[in-house]
Amino acid sequence: MSRFRAFRARSRILKSFISRILLVGLVCLWTDHAALAQDGSSAAAVGTDKVIVEPLDQTVSVIGRFVPKKSGVVAARISAPVEEYLVQVGDRVEKGDVLALLVKDTFVWERNRQRAEVQSARAQLQTDRDTLLLLEQELERLDGLRKSPAFSEARYADKAQEVARAKSQISRSAAQIKAAEANLALGELDLTYTTIIAPYPGAIIRRHSENGAYVREGDPLVTLLDYTNLEIEADVPANRISGLPVGRELDAVFENGQALRATVRAVIPDENPRTRTRRVRFIPTFIDNTSSSAANQSVTIRVPVGEVRDVITVHKDAVLNRRGSQIVIVKQDSKAIFKSVELGEAVGSRFVVLSGLKEGDEVVVRGNERIRPGQDLVDQNVKPKDPS
User: Please, what sign has the CA dihedral across residues 23, 28, 29, 31?
Assistant: First the structure.
């Protein structure tokens, strides 16, 4: 029985304590309400941000690759055995460096024979000229006997024909000299072709034959890649091509994070119907001595979504969603003005404003959850004024 009485006494004490706490809370709420009724509203400390105009330059990442402007096989221009390779796979060479030698004995003797033919043709021409000179002298003597009874018209006509034939023979001999000289030039050229030289600087990435192997005209000897003159090629979606005029510079980055610039050189007018992409060639500009010497190395290019245009933007923290509408609180004459806005796409930490705001508007970005229309606003780093 005594336990029950003690329990009731403790219950009465607890109820009395709770009642006092509730009374104090009601008094505080009434005091705040009275102060608000007397003052109209209390100043709220808020953080603000300006509505600005900035260029809209959104980008999408496109994977590109380095491609050489010059790359291919260095082929034999004549048929001959390979005497010696002077390069190995991976060697760097300059333009004009000797890559391989072909056996040239046959071409040396052929060149010598053609030289002899040129000399023979020249000698024949000299002989024909001497013959013509002799015939012209005989024709001149016959012409001097024209008034003499010993003059024969038939013999004179025959000699004149012999002179004409001698002149034709001289022309023929001169042509034979030119033909012999042309053959000699071809022989000299074939002889130079026994030395295989690099047509441009680059690296040897493959050898197609070995010493002693017989190669025919046109057979590949080495594959050469010009690693000093690389471009970037990327397959860009066709709906992004409008933002890639020739000469535009874009940001790009290697897989290791190093940055570079890529300038549009050409858009290939050939669309892939399966992927709806077009090939675009870029000229790379390396930053901080960054360089690449590897064809097919990957690089990420930031391609613009479309043409760059100026747009009005507002910070994302200024936007409130109220009953399905988007509201922004504008600080105007230190008062809270609620404005309904229409927003577009996101630009980083901001939204594009389609309507409802103008450049320079000061909007609340911190402390805007409990603000009432018309309430006084002060910057967050300034203490609110004492209502008294």
Answer: positive
Tell me phi and psi for residue 229, to 5 degrees.
-140, 80
Instruction: Spell out the alpha helix ranges (H) of the chain.
Output: 2-39, 105-144, 153-192
pLDDT, tens digit, for every residue of 68-98? 999 999 999 999 999 999 999 999 999 999 9
Whether the full predicted model's pTM is greater than 0.90, yes or no, is no
User: Does residue 44 contact residue 371 with C-beta atoms inside 8 Å?
Assistant: yes
Element (DSSP H or E) covering residue 259 = strand 259-272
Q: Which domains, from first to last, does the chain contain? A: 44-56+310-379 (2.40.420.20), 60-67+230-299 (2.40.30.170), 104-191 (1.20.58)
pLDDT digits (tens, 9 = 90+) for 353-371: 999 999 999 999 988 888 8
The angle subtended at Cα 199 by Cα 196 and Cα 205, nearest 5°, is: 80
Q: What's the CA gap between 165 and 167, in Å, rounded?
A: 5
- Helix 105-144 to helix 153-192 angle (10° resolution) is 160
Around Cβ 238, how many Cβ atoms within 10 Å?
13
CB-count burial class (<10 Å; 0-12, 13-18, 19+) for 56: middle
